[in-house]
Amino acid sequence: MTVPASLRERKKAKTRAAIREHALRLFEEQGYASTTVDQIAEAAEVSPSTFFRYFPTKEDVVITDDYDPLLVQAVRNQPPEVAPVEAVMNGMRAVFDKLGDEDWAIERRRQHLFNTVPELRQRAMQQTVTALDMLADVIAERRGEPSGDLVSRVIAGAMIGVVLAVMPPGRADMYSTPDYDRLEAAFALLRDNLTLS
Known about the structure:
Distance between the termini: 31 Å
Shape: globular
Radius of gyration: 18 Å
Helix content: over 70%
C-alpha cells in the first residue's frame, strides 16, 4: 500500500490499522455479533469517539478498504488510447501488484468474515453500487463524457458483474493472490462479445 507522506497522515494510518487489526482479532476470537465497538476501542487503546472518526459503524471496519480510490487513480493514469476494459485491468494490476503478504492476509480475513456473517456479505454486495459509481465516473472521464453517461455506466456495470462472477465476496480462496489470468479471461469474454468504446 502507499505510505502516507506526512507524520500526521502516518499516525492516522497507524491508528486506523490498529483499530482494524484489533477488530478482526476480536471478531475471530469471540464472534462478530458478540464484539462491541467499546471492546474494539479498548483493545486498540482509543476512545469510542475516535473509533467512529475512522469507521462510521462496526460493519465498516470490515467493509471499508483503501483500494477504490487507488484503483480510480490507476485507471485515470492509463494512456488515453487504452480501451476501458484494458484500462481497468491495467489499473487493477497497478494497485494489487503493490500489496504485500500482510495486505493479502488481511484481505483473506475480511473475505472469511463476508462468508460467515450474512449482514457483512449483504453490505459488501451493497458496496458494489458505490464501486460502480466510481468506476463509471472514471470511464466517462476517459471517454470524454459527463458523469452519469449511460454508456459508461453500462460498461462499469458489466465489469463489476465480471468481478463478482470471478471473485465473489466471501470466497477467501480467491484472495490468496490475484488470479489475473482468470480475471483477464473473463474480461476478454466481455470485451470480445460486447461493443465497448
